[in-house]
Structure formats: structure tokens, C-alpha cells
Write a structure and sequence with these properties.
Blueprint: E1 8-11, H1 17-28, E2 32-37, H2 40-49, E3 55-59, H3 65-79, E4 84-87, E5 93-94, H4 102-130, E6 133-138, H5 151-173, E7 178-185, E8 197-198, H6 204-214, H7 219-231, E9 236-239, H8 241-253, H9 258-268
Parallel strand pairs: 1-2, 1-4, 2-3, 4-6, 5-8, 6-7, 7-9
Helix pairs in contact: 1-2, 1-7, 3-4, 4-5
Amino acid sequence: MKDLNNKVAVITGAGSGIGRALAGVLAAKGCRLALSDVNEAGLAETVADCGGTEVRAYKLDVSDRDAIYAHAEQVLADFGAVNLVINNAGVALSATVREMTDDDFKWVMDIDFWGVAHGTRAFLPHLIASGDGHVVNISSVFGLIGVPKQSAYNAAKFAVRGFTEALRQEMKLENQPVQISCVHPGGIRTNIANSARMGKSENAVAQRKGFDKLAMTTPEKAAEIIVKGILKNESRILVGPDAWGIDAINRLLGSAYQPLVERFSRKNLYS
């Protein structure tokens, strides 16, 4: 996909953060946009920012499998084709394995993994039919390394990475006209930390302030990097200097990265 002009792009979680920024960048490149979110007010603001292009808004809960498949059919009916799907919607949880509830664990997995998996599978036939398709699944640097108090988020984002990398190989082996990219953002200045669920022993204010200090990249910069990666057909798109650093450490040290994370966590998460 060398040219995005007049392509139909689907973005979940478009009501804020990276999703909203992606909508803006893709609109500027001439994409026709199918934007979804559970937050209708935020979604309306995104739509208003995307002037000069065809854009439709859809209320969508990506944890609802049937709703995602219905959404895929509705988008096809509304636009006549689908070229680009960005499974971006996500949530966060800060809690240890011992204290997190089953409901919180399921909440994260239903949105961060199953939302991506169902979003990919629902749209894949339409992307193949387009003759020029691309799936972009948002993982995280926490899909590269394990971090204390992030086990549920780690589980979802590692799963997204494995699912996406396997799909890329399948599309190539089957000679299908669909490219696949997995995105690993570092700290991005979005509302995900403010809307995150916390374990009972967590200091929510301190956790969120800590995240804000580590958020090195704006959503707008993240969107620019992701779109450049799409146009270059990059299989792995790293977003932010922290993402590049974590990827390098992981490649260099393998599982030996863990003592570094333990020292960081002892100082910042367990002090």
C-alpha cells in the first residue's frame, strides 16, 4: 500500500489518543474513514477534526464479538470496500497476579486481545477482496518484555504480537494481497493510564503520575510513525525512543533483561 488516497481505513478506539491522531493523519492523506469507539462524545470530536474527507462514526464495544462482525459488514455496506484496519482500542490494568480479580483480567483480555483478534478475523475477507489490504494491530512494549503489576496487560499484548506475526506469515505463504504490521508503542501521552483499573493495594495517583513521567511521545508523533510504517510495509513498528531501547535490550539480553526490570520496578513500583 504505497498510496493511501481514497483508501477505506477502519480505526477502533478512535475517540481519543493514538486512534484520534491516526484519524487526523489518514484524513490528511485522503483516506475515507470508518471510526469507532464506545465513547460517542470523544468520537464526535474526532469526526469534527477530520474535515475534508468522508468519515463515518460507529459506536462499538470491541469486547463484543458479534458486534465486531456486524460492524465489519456495515462498514463494507457503507463504503463498498475495506483496505486498512487498525485495531487500536485498548485498556490497562495495574495489579499483581495475586490481587487482580477474574473480572478485571477478563476485561483486559476481552478488549486488548480478543478485540484485536475478532477485529482482524471479521475484516480479513474484505481486505483480501480489496486486492490491497493491510492489518495493523496495536501491541505495546509490554508485548516485548514482562513487567511487574502488568501481567494481564502483558498477557494480552504478547498474545497480540504472536497472533499478528503468525498471520503475517500466513498471508505471505498463501500469497494473499494483505500486509500485516504489529505496533509496539512505548509511553504515549494518552488517557489510558487515567482510565486504567487498579488493584486494591495500588496508589492510583502515584501510578498515574509515574506513567505521565515515562510518556515520552505524543499521540500525533505516534500516528505519524505508524502511518510511515504502514507505507513501508514494516512488520514491526516501534513507536518512541523508549520502544527502540526496550527492543534493543530484549534482542541483546534475551531473558536476562529481567534483572534490569526488577531493579527499575523496585525503585518505581514497590518503593
